Amino acid sequence: MAQNKREGTLVEPILRLNGEHVRAIHKASLSLLDDPGIFCFNETAAGVLNDAGCSVSSKQENQGVWRIRFPAALVEQSLESAPEKVVLGARNPKNRLVLDARVPEVYFGTGSETNIYLDTRKREYVCPNNTSLTLCHPSFHQERGSIEYLCQSAKLCDVLQQVDFFIRNVNIQNEGITPENKDVNVFLASLMYSTKHVQSGLVELDSLKHVLRLAELISEGSEGFPKNPVISFITCVIKSPLQMVDDTTEKLIAIAGKNFPVVISGSPQGGSTAPIEEEGMTAMINAEILAGITLTQIINPGTPVLYGAVPVRARLDTLHDLYGVPEVIHYNTDCIQMARHYGIPCYSTAGVGDAKVPGMQATIEKVFSQLFVAAAGAQYIHYAFGLLDKTNIFSPLQAVLDDAQIGLVRGILRRPVFTDKDILETVEQVKKVMDSKTRLFARHIRKAMRKGLVSLSYPFETRELEDRVLINAFQKLKDILSGPDNRLDETLIEKIYREIPGLLPRNFFEIPGIQD
Amino acid sequence: MADILGEIKKNLIAGRVDREDEGFDEDMVGQPGVTELVRQALEENIPPADILNEALTPGMEEVGVLFEEGEYMVPDMLASAECIAEATKILEPYFSGQEIQSRGKFVIATVEGDLHDVGKNIVSTILQASGFEVQDLGTCVKADDIVSIVKETKAGFLGLSALLTSTMTHMKETIDKLKEEGLRDQVVVCIGGAPVSEEFAQKIGADLYGEDAFDAINKLDKINAPGN
Ligand code: B12
Fold first, then answer.
1. Please, what are the domains in chain A?
2. The pTM is what?
3. B122: Cβ below 6 Å to ligand 1?
4. CA–CA dist A272, B136 (Å, integer)
5. Residue A200: is its pLDDT beyond 80?
6. What local confidence, expressed as pLDDT, does residue B92 receive?
7. Which residues contact residue A445 at a Cβ distance below 8 angstroms, ignoring those fewer than 6 apart?
């Protein structure tokens, strides 16, 4: 069992808040949960919370919603019953993730449900004054997301080494996709090509049974479901500020009832739907997540939950969401510390570019959050691959670039591993080299290399007086997409088609080729 | 007397709705804001038309200039827009309809199944500040309900917002229902939200697509409301 898991990056967490800050934020969140409390739009939840001891106003008293005031003791008791450790399964059991709140082992994955897929082509330009001077640069085209592109993304992310889990990241907008059949198609496209953990939201509660059956069929080959939950769910139960929405809450109640791993996520925007100040944002989002967690633990004590922090900021010029700014890192780091304080694994956010295409801007916007959020020790970092234009565009080329970047981040965050014996050995090494003719340490690199302590140079470097990063990464993308994949086997696919209603025809699940 | 109009204008530009509002500067807390000042002006028998024409309108114009010059950002604009909305509420009873030039009734809603409202709320605040009489129906509003409100209020404008590809289809449904009810020619339908586009607007027979509130107002300026 111990080896049957993916290895994350164990970090030495950086702290932003001190113990006093953490206690103060906790207190502030409890006070928000008491007053104003949560405005709840879901009747079942209002009933359940009322029975559990919350004070619940009548609907009429409060403009058509139930106002729920949470007693601190109830929240704290729920935090006790939420498990510290959550296991997320995968088609390949070696890709199973063990998320332990007490262990800052970091995993990175995809996220968002982008409407736009960014298609890339290679273009060569000739200098009009000197035709021997040429420049190769990609050109980009926006395409609507589709099942085919989701399949392509699942395959790409299955191959990319740094991707630890796959959240469906392309919104399927094919003709024939309806709210009723969307979920099964999303999960099949993802599971068809991904041997890593697969996660998504749920459009229709009615599809839950079909989605679970699909996962069951797929897990039978590995270890059996729900021992190996190859899928899990994200629920955005909270609409900031402090409102529990109707339909997602209904879904959360159903998922928790089945004891399925679920992310309780909130995504307030500092400056529009939340205070822009770090302390206000953190106190509020923390209250929101605690409300969701409390509900799951009342429904089914022990429901495996992830503390889902997606705090972002609002832009000042349009109030749209904004990611590549320091505050987003502050907010996320604080949430990671709160989750650790509660002993609940943390789903966190990093790596979104506000830029619309891959390039310098995107890199700069992404890399700091990828680095610092990981350094803070979140167990599960979503949004980390391929996202541009806030979260509206998925670029496979960008995902390849992010993979390289996250490789570097993992290298930077590697903990020191030397022992007293290693120190003695390197001292010996220095003496030996001093005695040698060349006085070079080169031959000793091999030992460190075998220990995995030596990073390679940036994979997309150019040696000439030119920057070919994008073109080199594009070549890698093409190689991956024309290479082998881990598609489900045909007999299983047939079985799935016999049992699961609403799937679009099989040709929709073929991966489109990539052109030059 | 002119002093108080100047104060109203100053506070409008600072976006201070009331006494508790800090505007730009914490030192301002406790000093009267736009609502208190407008009430005080009325008590001092300053004609409501002067409040409107000498304080509020020029104040908002100045805000517009600051915004265009990049001095002001959207949050500043919204703060001033809220002041205008509050001030108009106080002044309304003093006007017999025609003196406050309304640009028409504007019904706005986020469509069925969709809870996103940050964008819609911004648009509705800005529309209000630019002279529309806005009725905001909230989120998750069914096509039938939207259509019956349009019918009831005889609104000249309808704004629909959707942020999900699975809900944008309700925009077409709403337009189709307007047609069924024979209301389509009475109302300019204007749509917005991240997944929709100019092309989509044409496809479903909306009159215009607004990338944001300002884009929508620019385009509305070019259209004559059928109701007006
Ligand atoms: C904040 C947010 C939420 C918040 C909403 C809070 C709120 N009070 O609205 C919460 C957390 C509740 C939420 C929930 C969900 N969300 Co959401 N959300 C967003 C996010 C990040 C930002 C939206 C926003 O506020 N933008 C800022 C405002 C200022 O911009 P705007 O809304 O676009 O409005 C501007 C213009 O579009 C225009 N405009 C808008 N409306 C109108 C109307 C008219 C008439 C005019 C003229 C102009 C106009 O003017 C506005 C001002 O400039 C977007 C991503 C994105 N970048 O769009 C995802 C996004 C829309 N959400 C998404 C999803 C998937 C969901 C959920 C399904 C998640 C889940 N699994 O539970 C739920 C759905 C709930 C529901 N039934 O609606 C997806 C949608 C993909 C899809 N399927 O189409 C997006 C695109 C994120 C992503 N890339 O995955 N979400």
1. 19-75 (no CATH), 88-413 (3.20.20.480), 420-450 (no CATH)
2. 0.89
3. yes
4. 18
5. yes
6. 81
7. A454
